[in-house]
Amino acid sequence: MEFKDYYGILGVARTATDEDIRRAYRRLARKYHPDVSKEPDAEARMREVNEANAVLGDPERRAAYDRLGAGVATGEGFRAPPGWDTGFEFRDAGDAAGFSEFFESLFGGRARDVWHEYPERGEDHHAVIEVDLDDALHGATREVSLRGLAPDAQGRQQIRTRTLSVRIPAGVREGQRIRLAGQGLPGQGGAGNGDLYLEIRFKPHRLYRAEGRDLSLTLPVAPWEAALGASVQAPTPGGPVEVRVPPGSHNGSRLRLKGRGIPGNPPGDLYLVLEVILPPADSEAAKAAYRRMAQDLAFDPRRHLHG
After folding, report:
1. Is the same domain home to 16 and 62?
2. Residue 150 above 80 pLDDT?
């Protein structure tokens, strides 16, 4: 996927004012509008100009794009870094038909702001927030800061930050959305406010990795524990438990602890992925033990390569 330089498309600097962007858009629209332009690629260029204006002409999308674009190389092979859109509110309403894959990957269909003078419920907003996995396991109430639009004293739309108290329910999964009723855009003509939907992403956890309601944990074991079998202690979200490592286990073997993942109905499972750790040969005694193993075991780890 190609990174789109929207400032370059409109021919303005990153420090351009809102008026600079409006002026550049009007100039290019007059040049490339298919109804009047004689340029051979007018239709394609007009789509690019419209797309650039949909981003840079909207304070929310421009602020998010500026964060994303800082230090990003242009060209093919672009992938948005994880969490680039965390903490930004975007409008869900809109139509991005004909816009690029780059735009779709960042903003989806949220491309157009619509104003009606008759009573209409406010638009819903969508934002991504990162929470600790422990909050999903046990539940918590957290303060969340979001950036979005709000009118100033003169009625002009400005980027502002607001802080909301959000209840993270125990058992929420990554990708699920929490609805905050009435926290979207204000309604018009006496209609109610829209809602705010918060999409959950998990921050990296020092022990667990989440997939749906299931968790996985890398469990280190000694070579003799894997070869001979052993009872070892493993952490779980509910506290440490004793688990049996079967004889003949190897690197990557998985042990399943049913129902010890993220809570739910049914709850997820916890998978222990064994990692065989070799003791360091950092003493004469350790080196001697390795020499005895080499002599006594007649073990060839590369025998499968000999044809």
Report:
1. yes
2. no
